Structure formats: C-alpha cells, structure tokens
UniProtKB/TrEMBL annotation:
The active site is at C101. Residues 16-310 form the DUS-like FMN-binding domain. It is an enzyme of class 1 (oxidoreductase). The gene is dusA. Its EC number is 1.3.1.91. FMN binds at Q71, K140, H172, N212, G213, G214, G234, R235. Catalyzes the synthesis of 5,6-dihydrouridine (D), a modified base found in the D-loop of most tRNAs, via the reduction of the C5-C6 double bond in target uridines. Specifically modifies U20 and U20a in tRNAs. Its cofactor is FMN. PANTHER family: FMN-LINKED OXIDOREDUCTASES SUPERFAMILY PROTEIN (PTHR42907). This is tRNA-dihydrouridine(20/20a) synthase. It catalyses: 5,6-dihydrouridine(20) in tRNA + NAD(+) = uridine(20) in tRNA + NADH + H(+); 5,6-dihydrouridine(20a) in tRNA + NADP(+) = uridine(20a) in tRNA + NADPH + H(+); 5,6-dihydrouridine(20) in tRNA + NADP(+) = uridine(20) in tRNA + NADPH + H(+); 5,6-dihydrouridine(20a) in tRNA + NAD(+) = uridine(20a) in tRNA + NADH + H(+). Belongs to the dus family. Keywords: Flavoprotein, FMN, NADP, Nucleotide-binding, Oxidoreductase, RNA-binding, tRNA processing, tRNA-binding.
Length: 337
C-alpha cells in the first residue's frame, strides 16, 4: 500500500466544487488568480475516458495552480487505480471519487450516486486507488438516494468506506432522486439536511468532513466551519467569482486582498491569448468563465453580450475582446482606472 500523505483539515477548509463542463483548466486558472488558498477540483472525468481517450487533454493540468484535486467517475477498481496513478503523476494533490452525480449518463455507467447503493464496491474502488497513490484519496457523496434517506443509510455507507481507509468525506447535504428529477433539479429540490451531515462528523471524529450544498455566502461558510472541517461552494463560486477574493482573508486570516477587477481583466486577457495560440477552439470556453466577473455591477449584461459577440470573435483576438468588453463596462460600473 502506498504511503498516504498526512491529512490536514485546513487543506479542505474552502473548496470550489467539481462542476461538469465548468471547472476545466481555464476556469481553475481564473479562480486561482482570485484566491491563493481555495482547493480547486476538476470536473468529473470518467475513468473509461482516461483509459481509452486523450489522456493528456483530459488531465489538462497547469503547474502553479495547486492545490487541485482530480475527480474521477467509475466503478472498476483496477481502472480507477490506474487513473489515480496517472492523476498523481500529472501533479494533482488529491484523487476524489464521485458518488454524488445523479445524471442519466452516470446511472447507465454504474457510477456517480448509484454507487451509494453498493458501499462495498465503493470501498473496494477507494482501497485500490489508495494502494496506487500517495496523495489523499477522498469521496464525494450525497446523504441519500431515492427512498434511502434515513441517517442509518448514509452512516452505513460512510462506515463501510471508512473501514477501507478513507478519511476525507465531501458530503452534498441533499439526497439524490434517480427518477423524476433532472441533475439541475437534484441540486435544488431535495431538501437540505446539513444536520444529518453534521451527525456524520460527530460519529466519525477521526475523519475530515466537508459540507456542500446551498451555501452562498462567506458568512454561511464561517457558520458551517463551526461544525465541519471544510465547506465547498459550487455554482455560487462560479457565477459570482469575485467572492473568491474575500476567501483568503475571511476564512484563513490572510491580509485583505488588494486585487482589482482591472488587474484580473488584464491578466486574463493575456492568458486567453495564450490559450488561443495553443488551442484556438478553446479560447471561447476560457473567456466564458469570465461572465460572472461583473455580476452585480451596472453594465454586467453588456459585458456578457460583448464577450459572446460573434462579430467580435470573427475579427479580434480573445484578449482584445476581453479588454474591449471591460472598457465598455467600466464607465457604467464606476470601476477603478
């Protein structure tokens, strides 16, 4: 068995959730500009895709953006162990197994939240992954599946996985309904129950528990850190990325950020030009991650419109579009020069 890195609860104090089609390498570059402390996660990558697909592209990794965790989806222990090893070799600081995604795609592939119905299979997968790497191997899961919503169900799931050696649990504090709800509805309709998640923390005191689901402000984060080791934000962090500039001070006690939106725009404009040179088709995706930078400011709608203007994309480079869009927003927003 590989020697696992010593676990420190503060490493998971604030995390940005894995989000399919969103938390790619370009998004992570942007988020790292805003917070030096946040733990960032890749979008979920299916282990068969890594085995049979373009591994270098799927494991797109940028040095200097750590800490970054690789989230895998799958249910084959040997395959997951190999993918975990590739992830560690690529430079990721953590390998996470997805046991929470309810989409039809993962249901048909026997991974995601479906795995919560087979806790021993999950334990076998995590044990194989732990044996192949020295970085932490963790699991992200829900508090229930369909009608399996009693505390005993999730306690037994965590207990089985705990016996296999896992000590970091990221708990989405909603159950998942496999039938009748879309993935989007599964993020909002099943009721939140962070108290149940907190009971897991009390019953497994030697483990690290991170709570996910419905958290929107740093004030809420501070409250939840009174009973959990860490908090994880998903869509709020993506849609309102400027919130990340307050994380290091509010949750870690670092000096207040002096970063300005102007500085971020300049750095990202340079960055998306490099992306465009390397992968021309990726530039628009990289720019799309900037949509929320003007959230709440006058001119935000104009900013978003210009970033996606087809006419501009036909005649200008990516960085030029970003600078032009921001220049148009600033007078309305009253931003700094």
């Amino acid at each position: 068995m590989a020697l696992q890195t010593e676990l420190k609860p503060e490493d998971w104090r604030f995390c940005v959730a894995p989000m399919i089609d969103w938390t790619d390498e370009w998004c992570r570059h942007f988020h790292r500009l805003l917070s030096k402390r946040a733990r960032l996660y890749t979008e979920m990558i299916a282990s068969p895709a890594l085995v049979h697909g373009n591994r270098a592209r799927l494991l797109g990794y940028e040095k200097g953006v750590n800490p970054v965790a690789l989230q895998l989806g799958g249910s084959n222990p040997a395959e997951l162990a190999q993918c975990a090893k590739w992830g560690e070799e690529a430079g990721f600081d953590e390998i996470n197994l997805n046991c929470g995604c309810p989409s039809p795609r993962v249901q048909s592939g026997d991974f995601g939240v479906v795995l919560m119905l087979s806790p021993q299979k999950v334990a076998d997968c995590l044990k194989a992954m732990q044996d192949s790497v020295s970085v932490p191997v963790t699991v992200k899961h829900r508090i229930g599946v369909d009608d399996q919503t009693s505390y005993g169900f999730v306690r037994d799931f965590v207990g089985t996985v705990h016996e296999a050696g896992t000590r970091v649990f990221i708990v989405h504090a909603r159950a998942a309904w496999l039938k009748g709800l879309s993935p989007k509805e599964n993020r909002d309709i099943p009721p939140l129950n962070r108290e149940l998640a907190a009971q897991l923390k009390a019953d497994f005191p030697d483990s690290i528990f991170v709570v996910n689901g419905g958290i929107k402000t740093l004030s809420e984060c501070q409250t939840e850190l009174g009973r959990f080791d860490g908090v994880m934000l998903g869509r709020e962090a993506y849609n309102n990325p400027w919130l990340l500039t307050e994380v290091d001070h509010a949750l870690y006690g670092d000096p207040e950020s002096t970063l300005t939106r102007d500085e971020v725009v300049e750095q990202m404009a340079d960055y998306v030009d490099l992306v465009q040179e390397r992968e021309p088709l990726a530039a628009r995706t990289a720019v799309n991650h900037l949509m929320g930078l003007a959230l709440g400011l006058p001119g935000a709608r104009h900013w978003r419109r210009l970033l996606t203007d087809p006419a501009l994309w036909k005649t200008k480079k990516a960085g030029e579009i970003v600078r032009l869009a921001w220049k148009e927003v600033k007078p309305e927003a009253g931003m700094e020069d």
